[in-house]
């Protein structure tokens, strides 16, 4: 019992420490709403269980499944975990939790190639062109507003291209965001050719010597062949105007998305070579575990996460904070 | 395309062929596969667990009829239970004794509330009602503009007021409806997270101000495990009357439908199946059930046919097939049956020959539309005796269906091959044969 309370304290301290140093304030406060912290879980766990058994493994499985990680990826994580436990004769639950988190981090790590930074743009691409794609309602336009703001804050000259010419009032929505962010916007009338808007946006950015161009596109379900063709065309046309553009194709995923997220990633990647993911709406109770399933299948880094509705609620992705959040509110060791 | 659940179950049951009863021992493996299928479809894990337990209870002790394999029987039980759980299909919206009827639309961000509101207005308008849309989303930039544009498209007035609160807009819209003889007010509210206390209070305030006759909770069909949390929270706050499942035109398996239904026990009233404003449909529990299970072939073509036609007709169909009297008319019937069963990607497995397509082959729904058009451009005689279709007729059919002679040729050739296969067909073995047939993918 004494050992357990020391463990709890240690975890408490570590948690606080990380909260402070990793400037997770936003993510944390968003997730604080999700009731229990991992610490109280571990406390309960310590009270009920001290040895690794099947029951405990079942509970770990539930945490992952409940977080939308998916059956397949969950199986992989648990199989690896069991093997490690067997090989190294881990027996106590605290060791298990640590190992467990490591496994999860490992899956994310594979896809983490470089630390993203807003201040430094890759050389030889001026303007740096970012195309933003995704299914309907994931938060593309909002994300673009926030991204534009952050790039501007980092000292870049930013142009937004409003190539969602389909949805009613998409232009107006983006215009408001551009105003908030204090950046330029290039748009045409509703219903015009989105590729033409993208082309114009690039031309305008080149002549204004902008540093960053962000192209919004209409939300589309990945199964609509013709709409995916349209997306390819937008991309092709950009490459014509500025060879190599877009330099980044970001797929926006809603954190509450279930296993369909995997399909979204596959289809969009097949169509326009997605280079990174933005995970939005992490301020809800959804854990965004689909990212693990995605990372397990395709090697795509998560670049940003969206944690709120205000303009500065977009953060560079922090793997560890994410893993911690995944376990927050989860029932480990409860009866 | 994923391996079908039926196949997996057949494998799980292989070792117990010849056993006459489902027992706790032999059912275990198969239920593990079912659980997996449910979780893959985003059914909440707790709901899945409960569901499996229920199925298990029902399954144990069941006699395995000679016409079924144990796997099929389990699937049938699962399907029945799921349809039961998903509930009745209802599209009705409450109406107030003294108009206007007030409908409040709420949900998370990006679930499709604004689009649904417009679709519902359009639907009611087509039923002879006089809807008014109220733009009470004062939070998302340009949300009001969006609703106004949609309102214009469907010619339904939109009540909007800028620079004020949602409660006031909602109240005023009802007054406006009263004065302007609109019998239904659809209030579109801002998307909100269920954990956002301030926003949840706002929607409560809107409800208290207008006392809606109907509150609808809109949810994205692609939502994962968290769907239950959101639904429960909205239910606790708003006590909504029905659920709207949107974006079902994608390839998500829609397990959220089952989870929500299990947790809040409210009917799913509408589904959204496209971006066009008439793409609103009634919810059919059986379609969603097979979709969640990820297998078009639970109820295979033959079984489906047996369900729809009476026994006699089914026998006739088999007879026809055996004698290769299978005509284009029958083909068309089947095609329509198949289309009724849900999204094409899901039913692919049950269309003859389709299961031979490489995994992830792109499925063009328009391909089937084209096939249908071609058959419909044939005369009755041509449909029953394709042999008479000569060059002139082919040209006419191509012209009539907006396709090319090549398309017509291809279909004819495939049909011919199909008939050849049919000849080899042994009685009662139709399904297996059908899997060997060719079918145009495009």
What do you see in this structure?
- The complex is a heterodimer of chains A (335) and B (442).
- Chain A is α/β, with parallel strands linked by helices.
- Chain A folds into 3 domains: 2-30; 33-112, Four Helix Bundle (Hemerythrin (Met), subunit A); 128-317, 3-Layer(aba) Sandwich (Rossmann fold).
- Chain A contains 13 helices and 8 strands.
- Chain A has helices at 2-21, 25-32, 38-48, 54-66, 71-88, 93-109, 140-153, 170-181, 194-208, 225-241, 260-272, 290-297, 319-327; strands at 128-133, 158-163, 184-186, 212-217, 248-254, 276-280, 302-306, 314-316.
- Chain A has an 8-stranded mixed β-sheet, sandwiched between helices.
- In chain A, helix 6 crosses helix 13 (319-327) and helix 7 (140-153) runs parallel beside helix 8.
- The longest helix of chain A has 20 residues, at 2-21.
- The model of chain A is unreliable at 1-43 and 331-335 (pLDDT under 50).
- In chain B, helix 4 packs across helix 11 (285-292) and helix 14 packs antiparallel against helix 16 (365-376).
- Chain B has an 8-stranded mixed β-sheet with strand order 3-2-4-1-5-6-7-8, with helices on both faces.
- The radius of gyration of chain B is 25 Å and the shape is flat.
- Chains A and B meet through helix 4, helix 8 and helix 11 of A and helix 2, helix 6 and helix 9 of B.
